[in-house]
Design brief:
The N and C termini lie far apart (113 Å). The chain is an alpha/beta fold. Helix 3 crosses helix 4. Keywords: Activator, DNA-binding, Transcription, Transcription regulation.
Length: 338
Amino acid sequence: MGQGGGLLKWPVRARLRRRPNQTTRNFQMQARQLEVFCMLMRSGTVTGAAAMLNITQPALSQILLHAEDQLGFKLFNRVRGKLVPTREAEELYPEAERIFSELGALRRRTADMRFGRTGMIRIAATTPPAMSIVPKALLSFRATYPDIVVRSLIAPLVNVVDMIRNGDAPLGIVMNNIARPGIDVETLGYAELICIVPEGHHLATRDSIAFADLQNETLISYRADTLPGQLLANAAATENQSFNPAIEIDISITALPFVRNGFGVAIVDGLLPWEQFPGLVRRPLLPRKTVPIALLTSRDRPLTGSHLAMRDYLRQACAGVLKQGEAIREQIDPLLLE
C-alpha cells in the first residue's frame, strides 16, 4: 500500500517541481494571443472579438486558453455569461495595447516595404536628365508613393558611375550608353543636339542651323573629348566644316549665361527645357545628331520595390520629354522630321 501510494504521489511531486521552471520558460504571449487579448478587452465579448479578428469563436477561445496556459494565470472569468477581466488582465492591458499598436505599425511598414510604398530611394543623374527627366518622373512617383523620401543627386558622369558601383545610388541616368564593368546600361532614347542663339540674333530667323552657318560665329559647345563633342566634330568634318568651340563646356546648362548675354551661339543637347529660359531661341541643328540617354543600375545589387517603380517612372518620363522635343522640332519646321 505504501509502495502504491508512492507511485501515486510521484507524478504530483514531479509536477510541483517542474511547474515553476515551466512557467518561467513559457511566460510570454505570441502576437496572435496578444491580438486576441486586446480585442477581448476592447469588445468585452467573444463574439465581438472574433468578428473584429475575422476568426471563429471556438478558434478565439482556444487561443485564449493557450495564452492563459502559457502565462500561468487566468485573464478572464465568466460571470453570468460575460467575460470579466481579472486583476492581472487589467494590469497587463495598457502595456499589451501599446505593444499591439506597435505590432500593427510594424505590419503596415513591412507590407509597405513589400509593395514598395515606403523607405528612401536615391537617384544620381547628370545635369540635363536631372533637370528634365527626373522632375517629371518624381512628380508621377510621388503621386503614387507620397510617403517615400527621394534623394536626387546631380553629378558628372564619372561620379554617377561610381555611385552606382558602390551602392550610393541604385539608379543613375546619364547621356552616355557606353558599356561599363558591373553596370547594366539600358538605353532609354536619344536626345537631339540643337542650337541656341540669343533673341534678336540673325540666326534666330532661320528654321534650322547648319555647321556652315556657324563658321563666323563665336561657338560655345562641348569639349572634343566628350561624347557629344566627338559626334559634333565628326559631323562637321563630314560637311567639310570645322568644329572649334571658343568656349568649351562640360554640361549644357553652363552655355546659358554666355548665350543670354550675347557672347555667341551654342550647340547643346535638346533635353533641357531651353524654351523656358527667356532671351533664348532654340533651333534644330543640321545634319541631325543625337546623344543617348541611358539608365544605369548595378549588376550585383538587386533593386528594391520602390526603386523598381521609380525605374518605370524614369522610362515613362524620358519618353515624354523626347516626345515633347519632337513636337517642338516639328513646330519649327515640319519638313525636318521627314
